Amino acid sequence: MVKSEPDAYSFAQFQKDKTTAWTGVRNYTARINLRAMAKGDEVFVYHSVSEKAVVGLATVIKTAYPDPTVEPDEKAEWVCVDLKAGKALPHPVTLEAIKQHKTLQDMLLVRQSRLSVIPLTEKEAAELRKLGGI
């Protein structure tokens, strides 16, 4: 799962763009999660801040490579991945619904809410698809 503030980069804009480099991640754990993504992986897109809901799907089309938005003075090896926009969820899955759902209560989204790239278990992904109407 990747998170984005809808005012900064909405899922609707992502769908218009069709593809994007998921840049700007500056957290070590999130970087590990980006590096773990494989070509063809399904990715859920979560709108943070105002909406707080899983709103759509994407697919990894290029695995981790150096993030071109890195400032020259940044020493860490930050990476990004390329994603292809998929379908919007017919029924966005709110954070509130996730917290109330027994299968999803232990998701990192709930336990480490500030993490911008989050791995999901197969069980969590299947439940999000179901709740989202896919």
Number of discrete domains: 1
Q: Which structural class is indicated by helix and strand composition?
A: alpha+beta
User: Mind telling me the C-alpha Rg?
Assistant: 14 Å
Tally the helices: what do you get?
Answer: 5
State the CATH architecture.
Roll
Count of extended strands: 5
Structure keywords:
alpha+beta; 134 residues; 5 strands; globular; five-stranded mixed beta sheet; ph1033 like fold
What's the layout of helices and strands?
Layout: E1 2-4, H1 11-17, E2 19-22, H2 28-35, E3 42-47, E4 53-66, E5 79-94, H3 95-100, H4 108-111, H5 122-132
Parallel strand pairs: 1-3
Antiparallel strand pairs: 2-5, 3-4, 4-5
Q: Can you characterise this structure?
A:
The chain has 134 residues and is of the alpha+beta class. The chain has a single domain, classed as ph1033 like domains (ph1033 like fold). The chain contains 5 helices and 5 strands, in the order E-H-E-H-E-E-E-H-H-H.
